[in-house]
Design a protein that fits this description.
- The protein is an alpha/beta fold.
- It has one domain: TIM Barrel (Alpha-Beta Barrel), CATH 3.20.20.
- 39% of the residues lie in helices and 15% in strands.
- The strands form 3 sheets. The chain has an 8-stranded parallel β-barrel with strand order 3-4-7-8-9-10-12-13, surrounded by 6 helices. The protein has a 3-stranded antiparallel β-sheet with strand order 5-6-11, with no helix packed on it. A two-stranded antiparallel ribbon has the order 1-2.
- The structure holds flavin mononucleotide (FMN).
- The site of flavin mononucleotide (FMN) has 28 residues, from β4, β6, β11 and α11.
Length: 371
């Protein structure tokens, strides 16, 4: 399907459905398509062949390209093969909680088309780790899989580490990297885990289990990243970076949705939850620049950039700001299934026109010296 077909014909139909229903419909369509004979090949038809210039080696992993699916789009690992077939180099599933939970009452997702934004207050609906594990066993398509860990709503913050490690314990063999999500605005109190001591302990517990699993499976430990909120002031950013480093984190995902409504053309104060999409772009770009400056230029702690990305120019901008990889969610909702193929084609053209032999050469090119 061409992008204009999606934007002219399919998207207007989907917008007649409630945003969450439209998302379920789209995910189920991908799920069915990946199971039809020839379905994967049909979805991959317009995807350019892997371009070695776009391959990224980071976090001890090989990514066929820098573009990944952000957490929340395929929470329960229902359409991973289809997402890889559409061209993504990585898919982050989750947030997965140990026990199944329904999340917040509906409606809880709203499109804001004028801003190409989404507001969501989902609160981690999850089919739980056991169901997700079964689906992950069935995956066929190659590509890097991230597992985004969370806690059940009723689990206290004191016991949060037990939930994060329970999910990791079950999904470790199927994961390539692991994300500690402490930045969703929709689970009460969760963001308190971004404090230095709390985060240091949480990352430390996850890493202890990670290393133990690695021994058991005779495999290197998985990279463990911390996903942070975009609403941190400088002090809070230093706390979260230091806490993650104390606990032994491997990198950061910047960022989750924002609670700052001033980024929208209308604040929509009547709707609860976090904002994603175009209005988040400059905020997450600045946070990426600032974080890269604090971490140093040597790229020992890679950043995955996410927030408001929908074109190759946005990918380039984010990588220049210091992200080694990027992810998208809302840009895919508005742009449709042809989005990754278009971005990859444009990234290859950019490398060719600039004489760049590896897209990773641009990472951090704009970052200021250490702040
Ligand atoms: C409906 C919705 C659900 C989301 N669920 C999760 C989630 O479960 N875990 C998580 O870490 N991030 C979640 N996110 C945040 C995205 O992963 C991403 O960080 C954010 O949307 C910014 O990227 P974007 O502007 O490309 O959408 C969700 C976002 C949306 C719109």
């Amino acid at each position: 399907m061409t992008e204009s077909t999606y934007q002219r014909q399919i998207f207007p139909l989907l917008t007649r459905l409630d945003a969450e229903r439209a998302h379920r419909f789209a995910l189920q369509s991908l799920h069915i398509a990946e199971r039809l004979p020839g379905g994967i090949a049909a979805m991959a038809r317009d995807v350019p062949a892997p371009d070695p210039k776009l391959a990224v080696e980071t976090l001890g992993l090989h990514f066929s390209n820098p573009l990944g699916v952000a957490a929340g789009l395929d929470k329960d690992a229902e359409a991973m093969d289809a997402l890889f077939a559409l061209g993504f180099g990585s898919v982050e599933i989750g947030t997965v909680t140990p026990r199944p939970q329904p999340g917040n009452p509906r409606p809880r997702v709203w499109r804001i088309p004028g801003d190409e934004a989404v507001i969501n207050a989902m609160g981690f609906p999850s089919s739980g780790v056991t169901a997700v594990k079964k689906r992950l066993f069935g995956r066929r398509f190659p590509g890097v899989v991230g597992v985004n860990l969370g806690k059940n709503k009723e689990t206290s913050l004191e016991n949060a580490a037990r939930d994060y490690t329970r999910v990791l314990d079950d999904l470790w063999p199927m994961a390539n990297y692991v994300v500690i999500n402490v930045s969703s605005p929709n689970t009460p109190g969760l963001r308190e885990l971004q404090g230095r001591n709390a985060l240091g302990q949480l990352v430390g517990e996850v890493q202890r289990l990670n290393r133990w699993k690695a021994d058991v499976f005779s495999h290197p430990p998985h990279p463990v990243l911390v996903k942070i909120a975009p609403d941190l002031d400088d002090w809070a950013l230093d706390e979260v970076l230091q806490g993650a480093i104390d606990g032994g984190a491997s990198g950061f995902i910047i960022s989750n949705t924002t609670i700052d409504r001033s980024v929208l053309s209308e604040p929509h104060a009547e709707l609860p939850g976090g904002v994603s999409g175009r209005p988040l772009r400059s905020k997450t770009n600045e946070l990426t620049l600032k974080t890269r400056a604090r971490l140093g230029q040597d790229n020992q702690m890679p950043i995955i950039g996410v927030g408001g990305i929908s074109t190759a120019d946005h990918v380039i901008e984010r990588m220049i700001a210091g992200a080694s990889l990027v992810q998208i969610y809302t840009g895919f909702v508005y742009g449709g299934p042809g989005t990754p193929a278009r971005i990859l084609r444009d990234l290859s053209a950019f490398c060719d026109s600039e004489g760049i032999s590896s897209i990773s050469e641009i990472v951090g090119a704009a970052a200021p010296v250490r702040a």
